[in-house]
Amino acid sequence: MEHNMYSSLLFASFFACSQSFDEKGSEVNVDTATEEPAGEPSEPSEPSQPETNPADVDSDGDGFTENEGDCDDSDEDLNPEDLDNDGYSTCEGDCNDVNDSIYPGAEEVYYNETDENCDPSDEFDADGDGFDSAVETNSGQDCDDTNANVNPDASEDPSDGVDTNCDGVGDARFQLGYVDEYCIDCAGPSGIATDSAGQVHVVYEDAGQLWYRYLQNEFGSWSNYETIDTDPSRDAAYVDDVHYGLDVQVDAADFVQVAYISSGNTDTSLYYTYRDPNSQNWSEEFIVDGYTADTSDDFDDTSVGYQVEMAIDSQNLPVFAYFNETQYLPYLFDFTDDIIGFATGSNGIYIPLDTFWPGSPNSNMYSGTHISLAQDGGNNTHVVYYNYNPTIIVGSIENQYTKIPDLSTNSGVGLISDPTSFISSGNICWPGNSVSEGTDATHNSVAINGNNLCVAYKEENTANLHMTCKPISGSCSSGWTTEIVDSQGSVGDFATLEFNSLGQPYIAYQDILTKELRVATKENGVWEVMVVDDASNTGAFADMTIDNNDVVHISYLEKGTKGLLKYAWGQ
Known about the structure:
The protein has 571 residues and is mainly β. The protein is 4% helix and 37% strand. Strands 8, 9, 10, 11 and 12 form a five-stranded antiparallel beta sheet that branches. A five-stranded mixed beta sheet has the order 13-14-15-16-20, with no helix packed on it. A four-stranded antiparallel beta sheet has the order 3-32-31-30, with no helix packed on it.
């Protein structure tokens, strides 16, 4: 029994040891549970690697990373290396880094299919106006690729003779208009000048009265009609087609200065007035030369001032050249002192510009008609005029030249009969010297071009228009070089010569056979003659000026029943 009890206890103990429970009390069969061997290690993990900066990676394989200066690491053609050593890499805009003559800023050779300056936009746009040349490319629209102001977007100037907007329609070189189309009797001369702002000023004669109008610019409108106060008992500017005189200049202060003849019952004298640009008022009339009833003054000549021309010196004072018909000689009057109310001429200097020999000048033998003057930068006055002396052997029929040195430092002394004894400095050419000996030269017009003095004139024997020039500092009697300007018709009446800022000459004049207004200009060594206005009986008394923009302005008459004062502008 004892043995059986022991066996039962052993069996019970063995059974208990064969059962197990999990920690929540669930029974686990130890025979079927799998256990990890005690102390066996777990699988080891991979070590962490540092993160790579994309800027240090050469993504395009060109040998340079972003941190090494590669401006685009997705494009192997862009990198910081300067292969041709021209100072520019492909990253700096070098469009051909194996050619050291091609780089940004290189001088472009246009139209050669090579982009030297790496700017493809201007290969066929030499003037940089944004339009390709119509000549060099099939699709180009720029009709002048040398001028940035000429292109399809440019505003058209109808007066410049240029197809500015490239529309294929050429412009007339000159446009026409009127200063006064309601003249009572416009029969005489006009004067035209421009100021520093480009305004055009015109003074003209109508029925013996002086009138004034101004134009803001060639595309503006004329101002209202304005009379200039002159003696109502006298006729201003015009007696007939031989006895006339009017000239207009604008000085550096924009004063409009006017010289004109004034004709009364007893005399024709030379007068002067001016317009103040600030008050816009005209001054009183001043007598320059002629006649007054006062026997104590210097004014005794009764027929003075014809064909007057005026220049303005560096002090804005006027200088006049004119024909004195009482003495039949050319005269110069220079205001050397301020313009004040005067009647003795003591604030100026009078000089006869020529002498006459043999005998005394008269209506059949005279000097000084067709007179013109210009002043150079040193205030030296150059005058050319017509000399008619048919005396056999000693006489001549020609245009003559006189030069009077600067008088501006002298005080007014009145009449100087012999300027060689009065003028102590400067090169004087007095009395008259031949411009072109034996040339029957009328309608003289003088202008200065740089260091040269030039004269346009009509040669009456051939009826041709000429221009002749000489150095200002040259000999008094030689050095003239003459050329024919126009030989078609009878040309050169009322010639007026001016030069633009480039030294290009313009001459306005009338052909008296066709009675038309012409303008001649010299470009590239060749004279070009243009018919500006061919209306019936037009072009008389032409006067011309050129403004600061090189626009040419002309006033002239269309003679008819009562006459019309016309205006042309262009280039």
